[in-house]
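Re-running the complex after MR caught last week's input typo. The corrected sequence lines follow. Everything else is unchanged.
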Amino acid sequence: METNELLKIVYLGSDSNKIAALYNDKRFKMYKFTEAFAASSFLKKEKVHAIICDLNLKNFTGIEYFENLHKNSKSAKIIFFLLLEKYDKDIIKTALKTGIDDVYVVPLYADTVYKRIKFLSEIKRIRKHNKIKRQEKYKLHWSKRLFDIVVASTALILLSPLLLIVMILIKLESKGSIFYVSKRVGRGYKIFDFYKFRSMYEGADAKLKEVKNSNQYAQEVISETTGETCPQCEKLGHPCSPILYIDGYEVCENHYLKSKKNKIKSTFIKIENDPRITKVGKFIRNTSIDELPQLINVLKGDMSIVGNRPLPLYEAELLTTDEWSERFLAPAGLTGLWQVKKRGKSGSMSAEERKQLDNYYARKSSFLFDLKLIFMTIPALFQSETV
Amino acid sequence: MEKNILVVDDTLMMRKLIKRFLGQFYNVRLEENGLDAFLSMQQGYIPDLIISDIQMPKMDGFEFLEQVKSTGFLKDIPVIMLSSIDESKVRVKFLKLGVTDYLVKPFNPEELVLKVNNIFERMNQYVQN
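Corrected-run output:
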């Protein structure tokens, strides 16, 4: 269809006032019929772009007329619009299912119809070549699941004496439950209960505030550093040598830097000797025994032995972008690329790096790759470093 | 009656995630571009709400929406755009076309569900009045 071609339209119905907008528009040439028979014979001779048809004709409905037209001739390729007096979803559905191109409720606007006809004639051409095929599969391979079940159950059985002792010790040392349960997000954004051995005192979150308060002290110090003499220099009996000027105040550099260091430390909640952690807790954390209950998660199917980081909800929400959503293709894992790289490098990595590793794993994961990661985790486990 | 939601997004995992968030409450159908979405609606699938991405192959969100708005049978269906484009100019362009809402990726899943719930709630009230 050329861009500025005149659109020829047959209107079959009783009242052309309903589509007066089309009659008044120079882009259309209208042919009006009240009798279906007359319209049909006209359509045999003349090539038109579209038919607009009332729902209620004299002896039958517009839908029936369309079906009849469809059966009898090649003119079925012509774009066909049904015109309703008022909105009716059932009629619209039936009409679309028989193959009618669109259903309009009066009044009709010229621009809309023009745009629609242009588009539909394009679509009819495309549709022939566009077989819709879809690949929505993202199922976990059965071999991975089987591997998970075998490894997790074997490990649980072999480790059961150790697990039992740890469970008793946790119970003995402090009040509270054996497991610490939190919500994590796994494969395909499945939210599940994530198990760990409890390594902190019950009500640790309240204790966190106490810890923060004791750190507040460090922050107060820094606000006091300005305009004061450095206590250390005073003690040594010499004037502060390198002097900084902050907001017009003289400050001892040594004093300032020290306070700043303290302040930075205090902003991290991870504190060297965190009073919230129990003695048993400290031991099972350092040996990663606290992570072992995740074997139950593996058996339940929430996680895999090898996979991506099981994310807390607030972190998972940040990954609802096209790019990062890919990580949810892979299951959450007991170990994975993130573990191996992190422990190996003995340093923390940026959020960006971690996200990239997750996506990389989701794309690359295979049985051999999994095995490789497991073997790389084993030596990493023995480097004592809190993760 | 359970509501039908059509989700149009070219990223497989994004489609899956949206289905995960909304599938517990609604019937969700997934399409990977504007054209496929349009063809399935053309064949008689009429959703109660459309959630669409903007950057897609074959037919992008803008053209898709323009076509939806020029039909007789889809023009009144509420549409939420869900895109990584976070520019007021783009949002305005879509709001002018008549979209109900515009949400930027990354998004909070709860926020999406609530927005959808609210739209249906408003529709119900409208029908009752």
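None of the earlier attempt is carried over here. The interface with chain A takes residues 9, 11-17, 20-21, 30, 32, 35-36, 38-40, 42-44, 46, 53, 66-67, 70-73, 84, 105-109 of chain B (CB under 8 Å). The longest helix of chain B spans residues 109-128.
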